[in-house]
Design a protein that fits this description.
938 residues; alpha/beta; Four Helix Bundle (Hemerythrin (Met), subunit A); paralog of FGE (formylglycine-generating enzyme); eight-stranded mixed β-sheet; 26 helices; 30 strands; SUMF_dom; methyltransferase; methyltransferase activity; oxidoreductase; DUF323 domain-containing protein
């Protein structure tokens, strides 16, 4: 039986009706008033152009067959062969990384604490740790959607590997593969060939479905949730051709009317943060990778052939970001890398895109005939294909060059194309490793695994949405969606705590982890009750969980007022009771938001209406939970029992080692100045947010709420000083520590040395390593990361360099410096660890240009994802008033021992990473994710 094919309704980039191809062609031929120069050199000026032809003209039925000729016969086109061999050689590994069962089913090994680079730990603690396993996955099935399927010669190897991963099991076919492409005849042909050549290998495990349409139409079909309906039915017997176009006989574009297509729902977005019924999710305690409902099938996108390279870099990130992927879904992306700089690399790319036998030339020049046909013109060999590799921009550029002057009739006039004029047709961007990782960050994707072709820069990347995600915060009160994001993060973090750790203290200066599981919902419930209603039962939770501890490090018996907690494990409530209480409090908050939602416009927008006091309480409760999430994580860092937050791909180790570049510890080189001269300036600390005025000010509006320690906005003059462009790294401190600090522990043996080392370090297999949530990372890798240590440890290092730590105003001044770092780029769990910091880079006018051909002045650096210590003792700003809702929030710590820290760590949520936020720790507190940089007086 032939595979069904469904023609999808065409749609534009944002869901509007698709623009007719003729309109796109005419707009490109009319061109722009000023030419686009692809770079800044004299050579670049020779490739300037004003007109373009849409790339889609290349991919009609005949064009797809011509492209198939390139991949079949042009050996210079290395991308196809490299990707084919990766899928052949690594198909089983890819299937396993995508979450499909392995030959050992069910998994034979139970979960164990992961070590660096382990591949046996299931993604998000699912699978091998036994929380859900893969049995449910087989009965539920999987959907595979390939964007731009093409000839399927490569895909066949992956589908075979996926089929081989499944055990024999009677019933419905578990995997449905959906091939999306523009050409209906080509879809029919290649799916038929797949059935004929691989039907026996796929039978009973993989069913094939064709989707006739462009990327936008296919993504809309996925987003609307209709894939499950496309695995049965008669399919599309024929397409609707536009009778007004003589090209319709051979140009295959999506039909205007869909034939036999199941109804598409009204743009119901797939939930990316929590279940459609969050209450159910809370009560079940589902893992972060659970689908939106028990019936939801995991979805895996395939986007092969480095087709993403045809997008401009910014457009590529936007395209990936809008893919409707839920936690647990993946994207297998083929992406070509930049070749080594120089003549050989340039020649390799130019040969790949203009092979000597002429297969590429025939493919590209056919597109000109297609464009003319859509304009009602006969074929004409009036242009020739030319191209070049633009090394500065990292892309191959394809153009038509007019062989002679010519006039082309459009619907509303004519255009004159001069002899020798260039018309842009296609870009093929290449991505360095750093560019690829930046692309994924921008697109809200994280790497599960990567496979690199030997002798080439071509890679397959398996990507997924991060398990913890935060959108940009609103201007005032957290939205309910922001709460759902925070709860997903909290639940993910607490799922890292095995039961045997619930009653242990990873840090003596804090409670057991179980306390914080009860403290967070209790705090929220107290502040909900403050604004009306009755406390959520059980009442004794308030006495037990209201406030935690932050004792004096030197004398832990000195501690502020706090809740009395049980001393025996048997006297604590059990985890089930605490989780039930958590769910009830969350439901209470949802109900309050629902009651406050008032329609604002006829379009259906709404906004939450709260009193100013209630709004402040909600902000406090949200940020309180976010701060404790970070605290809980750095507590868990100290325990070997902690489960890892995600699977650790082996490529990370390779990449980080490469970033160190073989440099000795403390000798990592950068091309920019290591010391910045910061001139005299004025900075503003804090913001204006007087809690005492809440009752009289009324409406919340866009007011930015904060804590008492942030009010009022205070201008401070800063004298000139000099500052290191980068924070102190593990490597720098290691070199100093082993040379000097360890000497002071002589006579105390190994134990004395270990006791004096930063708490973020650990002895591992006889050497120093850095603690991470994945296990110890060798110092050879983590040497490039920012050191996290106490203020006292970092101040001692600064003194050894003849410097000191910056004051609070000085650190603000550094961040405002034209070459200063950004405050918090590695925050909000973008990574679950620090990364090597980077200095700001000034790009000169004659250097590498951006895509617009213009040089960029400054690319700002970052500190790697840590808070930064200052040498400023914690105190209120002038005009400080202790808060009424939480009187002891900051005042309890004006003791001459706590110092201000600024910025954010990798585990800080965006709302807290604001400019006005002032954090603090005791100067000798060793566990926070806080680093520092050395500054000098002028």
């Amino acid at each position: 039986m032939p595979s069904p094919i469904y023609t999808l309704p065409p749609t534009g980039d944002y869901g509007e009706p698709a623009e007719p191809l003729r309109t796109q062609i005419e707009r490109g031929l009319r061109g722009t008033h000023l030419p686009t120069v692809p770079g800044t050199t004299d050579e670049d000026k020779q490739w300037a152009y004003r007109r373009s032809v849409p790339t889609v003209v290349l991919y009609d039925e005949q064009g797809l067959r011509l492209y198939d000729g390139i991949t079949s016969h042009a050996k210079e086109y290395y991308l196809f062969e490299d990707e084919l061999n990766l899928l052949k050689d690594h198909g089983p590994e890819i299937a396993e990384a995508m979450g499909f069962p392995t030959g050992s089913y069910p998994p034979a090994k139970e979960w164990k604490p992961a070590r660096w680079g382990d591949t046996e730990v299931g993604r998000y603690n699912n699978g091998v740790n036994g929380e859900e396993g893969l049995a449910a996955g087989i009965s539920r099935g999987w959907d595979i959607v390939e964007l731009g399927a093409g000839a399927l010669r490569k895909t066949a190897h992956l589908l075979t590997a996926l089929a081989d991963a499944l055990p024999d099991q009677p019933g419905e076919t578990p995997i449905t593969y959906h091939a999306l492409d523009l050409s209906l005849p080509e879809l029919d042909r290649v799916l038929g060939q797949m059935e004929e050549g691989y039907g026996a290998a796929l039978g009973g495990r993989v069913s094939l479905v064709g989707l006739h349409g462009d990327y936008n139409a296919g993504i809309k079909a996925v987003r609307s949730g209709t894939l499950s309906q496309l695995s049965s039915g008669p399919g599309t017997p024929s397409m609707s051709a536009d009778p007004g176009s003589p090209a319709s006989a051979h140009l295959v574009t999506p039909a205007i009317e869909a034939a036999d297509l199941p109804a598409i729902a009204n743009e119901d977005e797939l939930s990316l943060t929590c279940d459609d019924n969050p209450k159910d999710k809370d009560s079940k305690g589902a893992s972060p990778t659970s689908p939106a409902s028990p019936a939801a099938r995991p979805l895996h996108f395939l986007f092969l052939g480095s087709s993403l390279g045809n997008f401009a870099r910014a457009d590529a990130a936007a395209f990936l970001k809008q893919l409707p992927m839920r936690p647990g879904d993946t994207l297998l992306l083929g992406l070509d890398g930049r070749p080594p700089p120089g003549r050989a690399g340039r020649h390799k790319v130019e040969q790949a895109y203009n092979d000597p036998a002429g297969y590429t030339r025939a493919f590209e020049e056919h597109g000109w005939d297609v464009a003319r046909a859509h304009l009602g013109l006969a074929p004409d060999a009036g242009v020739e294909f030319v191209g070049r590799y633009n090394e500065a921009l990292g892309r191959h550029e394809a153009y038509y060059r007019a062989k002679r002057g010519q006039t082309i009739a459009l619907s509303d006039g004519e255009v004159e194309i001069a002899a020798g004029e260039l018309l842009h047709i296609e870009w093929s961007f290449k991505y360095s490793l750093a560019e690829a990782l930046a692309l994924f960050d921008t697109a809200d994707l994280t790497v599960v695994e990567s496979w690199k072709a030997p002798g080439s820069e071509y890679r397959l990347w398996l990507l997924e949405r991060p398990p913890v995600r935060f959108s940009e915060p609103g201007p005032s009160v957290p939205s309910l969606a922001e709460w759902h994001e925070l709860w997903a993060a909290w639940d993910h973090i607490t799922a890292m705590i095995p039961r045997e750790l619930l009653h242990q203290k990873p840090i003596d200066l804090r409670h057991i982890p179980l306390f914080y599981l009860g403290h967070i919902p209790t705090f929220l419930d107290i502040y909900l009750t403050h604004n009306g209603g009755t406390p959520t039962p059980p009442a004794y939770f308030r006495d037990m969980f209201e406030r935690g501890i932050d004792p004096d490090v030197d004398d832990p018996t000195k501690v502020h007022a706090h809740s009395a907690v049980p001393t025996r494990e048997a006297d604590w409530p059990n985890l089930g009771e605490i989780n039930a209480f958590r769910d009830a409090v969350r439901a209470r908050l949802r109900a309050r938001y629902a009651a406050a939602e008032i329609p604002r416009t006829e379009a259906g927008y709404s906004a939450a209406e709260f009193t100013r006091t209630e709004a402040r309480a909600l902000v406090m409760a949200y940020e309180h939970e976010a701060m404790h999430a970070e605290t809980l994580l750095y507590m868990l860092l100290q325990s070997p029992l902690t489960r890892p937050p995600t699977r650790t791909p082996a490529w990370c180790l390779e990449q980080w080692t490469g970033q160190v570049g073989g440099a000795r510890f403390g000798e990592i080189k950068h091309s920019t100045p290591s010391i910045l001269d910061v001139p005299a300036t004025r900075v503003v600390l804090g913001h204006d947010d007087a809690e005492a005025h809440d009752a009289e000010l009324g409406a919340v509006g866009d007011h930015e709420f904060g804590w008492d320690i942030e009010h009022p906005a205070t201008a401070v003059d800063v004298a000139p000083f000099r500052a290191h462009a980068l924070p102190v790294t593990n490597g720098e401190y290691h070199a100093w520590f082993t040379r000097e600090a360890s000497g002071t522990a002589s006579g105390k043996g190994e134990a004395g040395v270990i006791a004096r080392a930063p708490a973020s370090w650990i002895r591992h297999e006889g050497d120093w390593a850095v603690r991470t949530l994945y296990g110890p990372v060798p110092m050879a890798v983590a040497a490039a990361w920012p050191l996290t240590a106490s203020r006292d440890e970092l101040a001692a290092f600064a003194r050894s360099r003849g410097g000191r730590l910056p004051t609070e105003p000085e650190l603000r001044a550094l961040w405002a410096h034209p070459l200063g770092p950004k405050q918090a780029p590695n925050a909000a769990f973008r990574h679950w660890h620090p990364v090597p910091p980077a200095p700001s880079v000034r790009v000169p006018a004659h250097g590498e240009a951006g895509e617009d051909g213009r040089a960029h002045s400054v690319v700002h650096g970052h500190n790697g994802g840590v808070w930064e210590w200052t040498d400023t003792l914690l105190t209120g700003l002038p005009g400080y008033m202790a808060g009424k809702l939480y009187p002891g929030y900051s005042a309890d710590f004006f003791d001459g021992k706590h110092y201000v820290v600024l910025g954010a760590s990798f585990a800080t949520v965006p709302r807290i990473a604001r400019r006005s936020f002032r954090n603090w720790y005791q100067g000798n507190y060793r566990y926070a994710w806080a680093g520092a940089r050395v500054v000098y007086d002028v």
